[in-house]
Amino acid sequence: MQALEKKQDLAAQKPARRIGKAQREERILGYLFVLPVVIVILVLVYYPLAKGFSMSLHSLNFAMGPSDHFVGFKNYLHVIQDPDTIATAIHTLGYLAVAIFVELVGGLVFALTLNSHFRGRGIVLALTILPWALPGIVSGVLWSRIFHPDNGVLNNVLYRLGIIQDYQLWFSKPLYSIFFIGLVFVWSSLPLTILTLLAGLQTIPSELYDASAVDGAGPVYQFRFITLPLLRPALAVALTIGTVNALGIFDQIYVLNGTALGTRSITLQIYLMTFAQLRFGEGTALAFWLTLVTLAFSVGYIRSLRSARG
Amino acid sequence: MKQSPAFKYLRYIAILVLLIWSVGPIFVGLSTSLSTQAEINKVPAPLWPPHPNFKGYQALLVPNSVGNANISSEVSAFGKSMRNTLVATAMTVITVLFVCILAGYAFNRLQFPGRRFLFFFIIVTLPIPAFALLAPLFRIMSDLKLMDTYQGLVLIYLSAIGPLAVWLFYNYTADLPQEPEEAAMVDGCNRFQAFIYIVVPQMVPGIAALTAIVMLSVWGQFLLPLLFAPTLATKPVTVLITEFVGKYNANVPLISAAGMIALIPPAIVALFLNRYIRGMLSGWDR
Predict the structure, then answer these.
(1) Are residues B9 and B119 in the same domain?
(2) I want to staple A158 with a disulfide (CB 3.0 to 4.6 A). Which of A103, A163, B124, B175 is the partner?
């Protein structure tokens, strides 16, 4: 956002050197160029947003026959007292915890690794972003081959290595399932974290490392007192994107375990409530809860990292 | 940074782990797609099939290659769904590029009243999850008779990807040198001509990057087409694969082959355009 403000200021300082015809031409061109996207966002984001908010304030439950009367915030209260919804919220926090932990640790380790020159770095970088490019559904299909209890590769390899004596049912315990599905999700999202942190690392001047090395600083000291503080802005971006994405986890769960309650996320709950149970009012109310939480997390991260920087 | 030998080895280990993590699951999928169900069910199963066969791919890509007519017709839906994905992706890429390059450029370079407000109006929708809009969008699409049409899908994708694309191209335009455009206008070009003949050619790397990013994000869409592309008229391959997962859980090679075919186009784009994608997402190599 800082970059945005800076750029806007630059643009604002541009003197109005053309007047009359050229200026009018520029204005017309400006409106023509932004009109299509403005209309689409208005009709397909703002209008449904308003309509959705109105739906969430009404009793719309088509499973019980079409009824449509204003109930205020009743749906919002009702929906967070639902035991299934509470369970799905806890699962979602589980996915979020797995995603953030692995993305931060893995993202840092791999970004530091890639932030050096070695032969084949270009190829390694290209292969690193590959998982991010693949459809989430396909990642689910690929990883289902790894975690399958009868014929999965994880059992196969661990058995061959003698680490396990019997094939394990990885998805028999909800906690395991959430961890593994979270890992599959991370497979898709980690590349973006690595790229973000790598870009952050590349803005750190190498003179800082040279100077501190002259003063006798070791790698651990350098990481703690140079890399980590200067990486804060990139970490804030990575955390925010990671959180927003993880709260929206859907595809991997759907393909690996369907809509089963044991692994159901809040997004799947919204989908089921709205489109399977036709509880439109409650479904949209839950969706607005998710939106609020998503926004709160993003603002919170950026705030806390900004203040910690001072 | 000076590095001790211990650090060097740690780095090689990290690179190896990263490569196995990134490519391993794709290798597993390939190996499965070339196996028979019997080979997969062995304990322990071979990590690579001793006699690779292409039956899964054949069933999906060659019409009437499966003996059972029932399964054959279902499986032949795969070809149609791949075409659907291809058409929707191509249409969306062209639309998003056209609309968002114009907007990104205009928000950055052109002066017009309300510019800041309209830019904010679009960018502020970035963090809104699609879930908040699904139920009302479902009604709007039905009312507009855009359900199960490519046009409807393209509009929804444009509204979902548009803010990010505008944001990326706004920043990209800001990084381009402004002098060529100004020089062209001094030489008598009007603003539009300067944009078409001078600025657009300057933007080629950014256009390549945005093409790749939009292509990848549309190709992998699942929830939106699950709702808005319900029949084979527009149903994409991602949705069809989840149906296969339910139906053919005793024919894992077939499902894996479907996954492998569906990942080829995005994998090619990611590998060949990765420099541009990285540039757009996290800063261009200088």
Answers:
(1) no
(2) A163
